[in-house]
Structures are given as structure tokens and as C-alpha cells.
Design goal:
15 strands, 1 helix, eleven-stranded mixed barrel
Length: about 250
């Protein structure tokens, strides 16, 4: 492909990205999980998730993960886990210092990330209200990817370097147990902090339905506000969440 053609294509992409950035996106998150209670203190679990973006037209990512929880007492528990993320990375356009001239272009591609987390969660109950605060440290590593970026200055494909990122996630939640009603509503707010400050906020409202104590169905609406995110969703997003978990 001639250099002039590439620059023209990049200019079109840049214009479409600016239009897209002016409006919020809409997506859906589908999650299925299983949880096994080993003792009064220990439990283990696994989960799989699929996320969409671009008004549910594009698969954003899918993931599988394992986790373990340990109850220190009735109000406090610690947990840890690992998640394998397979991302559908959107096109990226890097500009030079003038803000107009294309520098590097990364076409869309599928990539892998490895995520580890450790959490401490405290909870208290008052009558039928439950309050919980979870602090989670999260480390995500994106391995290097060969030949993903096109360098227009040298007319060559270059590698995307490996990168690690630390995030502290703080989530405050309030839930209510409605008498003689199987749907338990909740609301929460979660703050994502990295080295540059608050990178993202996520607000959720939803409800869970428990059937025969083993089956838990969930429905939620989330709004995610992004300030700065270089390896996750870059647009503010409205999200519908559907989940199912089997407990035994």
C-alpha cells in the first residue's frame, strides 16, 4: 500500500474516532460462574464473561478466571484471583506533536492480558440493609505483540511493547433484603485509581434472584465514566449486565 493511501485512510479513521468520542457507547456484559464452599471459611470459584461494545455490535472481550475467598470473620474476608483476558483491541491512531499529522497506526487485533488481584472486603448489616466496602489491588500485564503498529516515518510494521499496570479499585455497595421477596436490589459505586489518579468510575444498580439457594440470577445497569484508560474501554459506556452463578 502506498504511503499516501495509508495517510488518507488514517485521516478518515481519525475523523471517525473524533465523532465517536462525542457520544457514549452502549454494551452488554454476560457472565456465568460457579462457586464451591469448601468449609466455613474457604470457598473457590470460576467464571467466564463476554463483553460487547459499539452498541452491542462488536465483541469487546471475553475472559475466564479463578478465585478463592477466605472469611476472617463474619464481617471481613480476603480473596485473590487470576483472570485471562482476550481483548478485541480497537484501531488506534498516534499523532505527532502538532496533533494533526499521523505518526503510528495500530489496526484492530485480538490480544491477551493476564490479570491478578487481591481484595479485602468488610461488610455490616443494619436491619435489612447491608453495607460493604471492597478494596482491590489489581495488576494487569499485556504481553508484547509482534508487528501490530505501522510506523509511517519508516514504512515498517513495529512491535507493541509489553506493559504492566497497577490499579486500586474501591467499591462501596448498599443492598436491601425485601421481606417475602426473592429479588434483592443493590446499588454501588466503584472508583479506579492508577498512578495518574482516578482513571475510571463505575456506577451500578441491579438485583439478584436466588432460586433454591444454589442458583443466583443477576440483572444490572451500569454507567462507566472514563477519564484515562490506555488498555481498557476508552469511551463512557452504558452497560446492561446479565449473570448466573451456581453455588454448591
Amino acid at each position: 500500500m502506498e504511503r499516501s493511501v495509508i495517510i488518507a485512510v488514517l485521516a478518515i479513521l481519525m475523523g471517525s474516532q473524533r465523532v465517536h468520542a462525542q457520544s457514549d457507547d452502549f454494551g452488554a456484559w454476560y457472565e456465568i460462574g460457579v462457586e464451591k464452599k469448601l468449609s466455613r471459611q474457604w470457598s473457590i470459584g470460576g467464571e467466564a464473561e463476554l463483553r460487547t461494545r459499539d452498541n452491542m455490535k462488536t465483541t469487546d472481550r471475553w475472559s475466564v478466571g479463578l478465585s478463592a475467598d477466605y472469611k476472617l470473620n463474619k464481617n471481613l474476608k480476603v480473596s485473590g484471583g487470576y483472570i485471562l483476558l482476550v481483548d478485541n483491541n480497537a484501531e488506534e491512531l498516534d499523532l505527532k506533536s502538532d496533533g494533526l499529522t499521523p505518526n503510528k497506526w495500530t489496526p484492530s487485533y485480538w490480544g491477551v492480558r493476564h490479570r491478578f488481584n487481591v481484595s479485602l472486603q468488610g461488610s455490616v448489616k443494619w436491619q435489612r440493609l447491608s453495607f460493604s466496602l471492597r478494596e482491590r489491588w489489581q495488576y494487569t500485564y499485556r504481553p508484547a505483540a509482534e508487528g501490530k503498529r505501522y510506523d509511517l516515518d519508516y514504512d515498517v510494521w513495529t512491535d507493541r511493547k509489553g506493559k504492566g499496570k497497577n490499579v486500586l479499585r474501591s467499591r462501596l455497595e448498599v443492598a436491601y433484603d425485601i421481606p417475602n421477596w426473592k429479588f434483592d436490589p443493590y446499588i454501588n459505586a466503584e472508583m479506579f485509581n492508577d498512578k495518574s489518579g482516578i482513571s475510571k468510575m463505575r456506577y451500578s444498580i441491579g438485583a439478584e434472584y436466588k432460586w433454591k439457594k444454589k442458583h443466583v440470577f443477576g440483572l444490572s445497569y451500569k454507567y462507566q465514566s472514563v477519564n484515562d484508560s490506555d488498555d481498557d474501554q476508552s469511551a463512557n459506556r452504558h452497560i446492561i449486565g446479565l449473570s448466573y452463578k451456581l453455588k454448591f
